[in-house]
């Protein structure tokens, strides 16, 4: 592809016109990391959180980069340099041009909790209504032709646009994907043609990255302020402190606001939750949309899944699906892997694996399981290393308050000392036990289970590895539970 077609005169943010000889350069790939540059690539030098890509321009050129895009031109240069005011956004828009195909209907969801669930639900709803559908997020890419395990919730723009192009060529017409606050803040999803945006909630998370809660919210609201074009749908859970601000941001942009939840706009475009009752491992819902009443049996555990299901339903309706069909399809939803997933039982006591690794999620997961614990509710969890340390004592206190038995164990310690992480949680979790080895902790919790108990194993959900130092060792809560259930002789 010619450089002019990638970053031509109509390219937003170019500080100066590109010289004709430079514009005629052939670009055969894009790279944001000098270590993976190949001959013919256009290298984007990005200032990052740990280092500055500008330091690696020589390495990128040595590896074959034909030109470099960045904010400030270096003094000496061996290949053309294109100065842009926002290199991350330039990268995302260039990636959208380099990988031009995208599914025709795309919905993105943001929020502290529920993104993976909403993306999975929206994909399932569309699938049931006959569309070829996919989702992209924390659990990777899920589409009819390929399933690729992911590492980031919102992939970097090159990986994201490559995937969009591939799945569109595979015939995927409908895509739901997760917009993380990091992804939004770093312009990873600019250039994606997002028809509808969803917003679940905002609670404490990522305080190691965002300087303030206002900064965190502003990153999330980029979805409505900058990405969904005027006339697109904004599906917003209306039951939170930040809901009004989210609705305001969407209205100012000229989006079609669909407020969902207890405070949802049931008389109009939104969805109002009129009533919800736990019924075994399902919930019976009464909802209202455009003044019409619907009754739905949602086959999922946890009040928070109602929020996720309604946001997903809103995204499907907001992108043109028939409301009655959408609500009917909610009766068939399957939870995303490791999201309050019932994985077994011991002595009649249910065992759930969940991905709660932040305070609000832990409260919600424990509250969701309370109806299943006539006797004791037991929780096993830890906290990830190299992540927001402030949440550790908060989660310890939540466990002590909302569970009857607490075992503190390791999550992904990464570069930190696991015992220091555990100590920070234990400091606020009065009466908790400490068992560092996660498999041993799960075993111990299962051994204790008696009729009437329920067990929550939180923090790692779908994960299949445990990150200790720089190594990723094979580990899965699902397998640890299966092994514990298989080995005990009663
Ligand atoms: C903190 C963070 O978000 N970092 C992301 C960011 O990297 P960065 O630009 O800050 O990286 P850096 O190390 O400072 O390097 C600066 C630049 O120099 C380049 N470089 C560096 C070394 C070298 O030898 N050559 C070279 O060219 C790097 O490729 C980079 O372009 O931009 C990269 C490209 O988009 C991301 O891959 C990277 O994600 C890292 C791996 C990460 O762990 N991110 C996590 C925290 C994250 O994004 N999580 C969210 C949210 C999860 C949730 O919802 O809970 C997610 O979306 O997954
Ligand atoms: N709507 C919600 N409100 C509160 N907690 C929720 C909600 N949805 C899910 N949770 C909790 O958060 C955990 C993660 O859910 P999910 O993976 O759907 O969210 P996410 O936003 O994608 O999270 P992450 O940012 O970690 O990828 C669940 O296992 C559950 O404990
Ligand atoms: N996307 C999140 C996932 C955290 C999962 C938890 N198991 C942990 O390792 O802290 C992060 O990378 O911060
Ligand atoms: Mg997720």
UniProtKB/TrEMBL annotation:
Binding of meso-2,6-diaminopimelate, residues: 387, 411-414, 459, 463
Keywords: ATP-binding, Cell cycle, Cell division, Cell shape, Cell wall biogenesis/degradation, Cytoplasm, Ligase, Magnesium, Nucleotide-binding, Peptidoglycan synthesis
Predominant localisation class: cytoplasm
Residue ranges occupied by any Mur ligase C-terminal domain in the UniProt entry: 338-461
Cofactors: Mg(2+)
Keyword Thylakoid: no
EC number: 6.3.2.13
Post-translational modifications: Carboxylation is probably crucial for Mg(2+) binding and, consequently, for the gamma-phosphate positioning of ATP.
Short motif Meso-diaminopimelate recognition motif, span: 411-414
Pathway: Cell wall biogenesis; peptidoglycan biosynthesis
Reaction it catalyzes: UDP-N-acetyl-alpha-D-muramoyl-L-alanyl-D-glutamate + meso-2,6-diaminopimelate + ATP = UDP-N-acetyl-alpha-D-muramoyl-L-alanyl-gamma-D-glutamyl-meso-2,6-diaminopimelate + ADP + phosphate + H(+)
GO molecular function, a single term: ligase activity
Residues the entry annotates as binding ATP: 111-117
Subcellular location(s) of the protein: Cytoplasm
Residues bearing the modification N6-carboxylysine: 220
TM region(s), chain numbering: none
Domain named Mur ligase N-terminal catalytic: residues: 27-98
InterPro entries: Mur-like_cat_sf, Mur_ligase_C, Mur_ligase_C_dom_sf, Mur_ligase_cen, Mur_ligase_N, MurE/MurF_N, UDP-N-AcMur-Glu-dNH2Pim_ligase
Domain Mur ligase central: 109-316
Residue numbers binding UDP-N-acetyl-alpha-D-muramoyl-L-alanyl-D-glutamate: 32, 34, 153-154, 180, 186, 188
Purpose: Catalyzes the addition of meso-diaminopimelic acid to the nucleotide precursor UDP-N-acetylmuramoyl-L-alanyl-D-glutamate (UMAG) in the biosynthesis of bacterial cell-wall peptidoglycan.
Similarity comment text for this entry: Belongs to the MurCDEF family. MurE subfamily.
Protein name (database record): UDP-N-acetylmuramoyl-L-alanyl-D-glutamate--2,6-diaminopimelate ligase
Gene name in the database record: murE
